[in-house]
Hints:
With 209 residues, the protein is of the alpha+beta class. β2 and β3 (71-77) form a beta hairpin. The chain folds into two domains: 1-46; 52-199, Rieske Iron-sulfur Protein, CATH 2.102.10.10. The N and C termini lie far apart (90 Å). The longest helix is centred in the N-terminal third of the chain and has 45 residues, at 2-46. Helix content is 25%, strand content 27%. The protein is elongated and about 100 Å long. It contains three helices and eleven strands. The model has no long low-confidence stretch (mean pLDDT 85). FE2/S2 (inorganic) cluster is lined by residues 90, 92-93, 95, 123, 125-126, 128, 139-141.
Amino acid sequence: MGAMAGDGAVHRSSRSAWRRLTFGLALLGLAVLVAVAVASMLWPLVEDRSNVDVPFEARGAVAQRFSAFGLDGWLVRQADGSVRAFSAADAHLRCRVEFIPVGHPLYAVRSTWKGLERGMFVDRCMHSLYDADGKPLYGPAPWGLDEFLVHEVHGGRLYLDLSRVMRGECSPGLSSTQYCSVPGRPRFGEPARVDEGYTSRFIWPVAIR
Ligand code: FES
């Protein structure tokens, strides 16, 4: 009788130890899950986007696309060999902007316009037009294309600061210059992603190569 009571006590204590272990493991699992969720939320804030290496063809076309960290843009070669990097999200509703090189069928439509000798940017949705320096020339875009700062172009490597953008140039006569740069007074802000949902509502007539 005494031995059976002893066995029962041993069973109960091993069951409660087992419960404690299961509970502890469940708690640990939960803590790991919470830590992973918090880390993934904070990751975009802590990752370093200030010196991002993007592919660049040293002897390529005037303009090349790039994409990194969910941001899209265009690298535009300058006459002196330097490169400027513009956001592909247009200033109005973040529609995707395409670069139209000289000689492209769409370029012919505006080829006589002054300032478009190196090609032009057109937004897919409302067809706002910008020169190769991202300056707005036509359409509802209230300011020019935002620009990423280029740290270095060296030996076929190009390094960009994707942590912020220099806001595009304000269109003349704009009532508020709160979100754009006026000459000599650059304004910086958060880079914007292209709104693919909005862009895809519009049918773009010609393939861009
Ligand atoms: S969406 Fe580009 S100008 Fe309106």
